[in-house]
Please model this.
Amino acid sequence: MALSKERDEVAHLVKFWSSTEGRDKSTKCLQYGSRTLASFLVTRNPKVAAKFAALNGTASDGRKIFRLGKFLNEYVKVKAILIAFLRSRCKSAKLCWDDCQITQLLQLISRSGFLCYWVLDNLLLLSKIKFLGFDTKKLAKLCGVFWFIGLLGSLANEARTLRRVQDEEQSHLDTLEREEARQDDKNFEACARETTKTLRKLRQEKTATSLNIIKNAADLVVASNLAQIPHKIFGQPFPEGSVGTAGFISGAISCYQMYD
Model:
């Protein structure tokens, strides 16, 4: 039985690494982990730090190769969200925006930001290998700007989702308390069973949403640094160690979510 379970786990790991996203997120951990170690060792052991810095650069370029053409996936998402949003607004043009439409708008902002980011990321790679002649520094900064916009939209959406889940969770708990106050054992037991199932699902969604918020917030550190936002606010970029740690946290959460 133990052997069978181990084989299943290995098969699951192979499946994870066989996917483009799985390889990308694993390499992201390698990239930002190396960046963190390079920052930590730069004054302690410059030679080893240089090796980790080189690994960081290689992993970064490798991930860009994985992402070639990824903007097409994002285009499909943006198109679907835009059509759904426009149809919804056409049906209720004179009415106030409902939660669904606000969610669609935030998704549209987020996915559009990521679409521009992927396009620029592809152009950046092609310019790095001298296939195109664009200014790589300007492209990198623009990548950071649109990545930052995409993450802000995603964070806003996840925050709304978290609030909704918390409200639903509290609503079910209140219902359970009311049933308990009625002192009707049969109804209370049935309500308790149903509420327990619902709460379990809500807590799973709450955990997933919380992880997404942490992941996006960590990426926001990297994106803002790439967009040179800290340079304008503080007069200097974020410390390399902080950027590396934030990127590693985001990558690790993505790997956990995909593998799980």
Remarks:
- Residues 15-67+238-259 form one domain.
- The mean pLDDT is 89.
- Residues 180 and 189 are 9 Å apart (CA to CA).
